[in-house]
Amino acid sequence: MSSLPDQFHALIIGASGTIGAAFVDLLQASPRCASVTGLHRHSQPPIDFADEDSIARAASALSAGPRFHLIINAAGLLHSEDFMPEKRLADLSYAQMQATFQANTFGPALLLRHFVPLLDRERAIMAMLSAKVGSIGDNRLGGWYSYRASKSALNMMVKTAAIEVARTQQNSVLVALHPGTVNSRLSRPFRGETIGRAADLAATEMLHVLDGLVPDDSGAFRSYDGTQLPW
């Protein structure tokens, strides 16, 4: 992350997941990174998207420390013990849609609300891991209703927040970032072990993309290889 100031401070949300942990490991190994804070449901402070107040409390707890030059939200939900992605309209249910939007849209939206004020004024990047299947223009297969829609909504949150933040924090970059298929718990039921990239490789690629972003890129929807994805 050569574009960030030397001895920069980073924050990873969803640090207990496969991709989040890879980000933490890579940043801890960087001599230019002064600190890496990892948050998840069992961290101190804890953060749980099912508990709205925990997001505000976590931001408040960190506000006494240094401002962050890099914030990445790597938390997300595709499936659980109770459900798999819907293949058809007949599979839709309130419970699955609510759980999916809570994890992929509502929680990240409140991260934007509470953590944008913690960004450093000199140079800062805030990335929300999104998904290419959240692209409306690229949707050719259908299915995965809740996941697709929740990521599309997340993209709109990032785009809209970027417009507002640019008015007062001109050196900040907000971006929706597609990680590609990674060998993780999220992708394992979908041949992730076979077709997915290693988490450390995926995290390295994404950090490279983030490193090259400038304020004019704020509000973009990028892939792990740097390409701009259609909304």
Short key terms for the protein model shown above:
231 residues, alpha/beta, Rossmann fold, globular
Structural description of this entry:
Strand 4 (124-129), helix 4 and strand 5 form a beta-alpha-beta unit. With 231 residues, the chain is of the alpha/beta class. It is 36% helix and 15% strand. Strands 2-1-3-4-5-6 form a six-stranded parallel sheet, sandwiched between helices. The protein has six helices and six strands; from the N terminus they run βαβαβαβαβααβ. The chain has one domain (8-223): 3-Layer(aba) Sandwich (Rossmann fold). The protein starts with 7 loop residues before the first strand and ends in an 8-residue tail after the last strand.
What is the CATH class designation?
Answer: Alpha Beta
- What topology, given as strand order, has the largest sheet? 2-1-3-4-5-6
The appropriate CATH architecture is: 3-Layer(aba) Sandwich
Mean pLDDT: 95
Low-confidence stretches: none
How do the strands and helices of this protein lay out in sequence?
Elements (H helix, E strand, L loop, with lengths): L7 E6 L4 H11 L4 E7 L12 H11 L7 E4 L20 H22 L8 E6 L15 H22 L5 E7 L13 H4 L3 H13 L8 E4 L8
Parallel strand pairs: 1-2, 1-3, 3-4, 4-5, 5-6
Tell me briefly what this model is.
This protein is α/β, with parallel strands linked by helices. The chain has helices at 18-28, 52-62, 94-115, 145-166, 192-195, 199-211; strands at residues 8-13, 33-39, 70-73, 124-129, 172-178, 220-223. It has a 6-stranded parallel sheet with strand order 2-1-3-4-5-6, sandwiched between helices.
